[in-house]
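Explain this one:

_____
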Amino acid sequence: YKSGFSPLLRGINIGFSHGYFLLGPFTKLGPLRDSQVANFIGFVSTISLIVILTTALLMYGYVTFSNTESKTAGKSSLDFLTAEGWKQFSSGFLIGGFGGAGIAYILLKLINFNLTIF
């Protein structure tokens, strides 16, 4: 609903929040939650899920917008409901998801490092 944002920026925004908040359940509820590698395994699991979700976004966009290119020729470049806009959105989702998961992982490592000092 943010008018004026390009599809890439919308994807980065949505992907960042997904990547950031998906790390917690994988880290704290995963089967290796009591081991020393729980944060790293949660990070890898989050990245894997982001890749799966991006693949699903790309498949959805290919099926939905493959035959509508001629109808949307007059739409603005900021509309992500076109084939090209959806590809940009999906790419932004992947970039943002990796960034969000990376930031969350770094924060978890810093928190664990500070707790081990005391």
